[in-house]
């Protein structure tokens, strides 16, 4: 009987964890959008300069800065490059967040921006959304944890009590 309660506990823990996955992905995507908008606004002046003097070619503008003999101008080019690369990074992250939820989750887990993941974790608001995605992910996680528990119990029995009868 205790084993059944423990299995139920693992299922419930997995269910609650799985329900959080879609909400975490949504909050991650919202942070990506916020950072993207901030960087885009910060870069807008540089883009206007590139449009006016370099036909919109930001790379040419950065090369122009780097080839200057003025140290301050060279360092300014490095700063422009950093902001431009950050804008490109967040543009790619936003594109990844337009995929179906399971691909978004995979992206966050495998390739997500580590700083934004940590930022999302630190400010995460636990929710209990009852939309279809949350219910599906919750049930899958609950079943997986219950199955892992059963597998561990079976392996433990088999390893330490190989000749005992199962009830």
Task: Provide the fold topology.
Layout: H1 2-54, H2 58-66, H3 71-96, H4 101-111, H5 114-122, H6 132-160
Helix pairs in contact: 1-3, 1-4, 1-5, 1-6, 2-3
Total number of distinct structural domains? 1
> Low-confidence parts, pLDDT < 50 over ≥5 residues?
none
- Based on helices, strands and strand pairing, what is the structural class? mainly alpha
Number of helices: 6
Quick one: overall form?
elongated
InterPro entries: DUF2937 (IPR022584), UCP029393 (IPR016917)
Pfam families: DUF2937
Keywords: Membrane, Transmembrane, Transmembrane helix
Protein name: DUF2937 family protein
What does this entry show, briefly?
Keywords: Membrane, Transmembrane, Transmembrane helix. The protein is mostly helical. Helix content is 82%, strand content 0%.
Written account of the structure:
With 167 residues, the protein is mainly alpha-helical. The chain has one domain. The radius of gyration is 25 Å and the shape is elongated. It starts with a helix and ends in a 7-residue tail after the last helix. The model has no long low-confidence stretch (mean pLDDT 90).
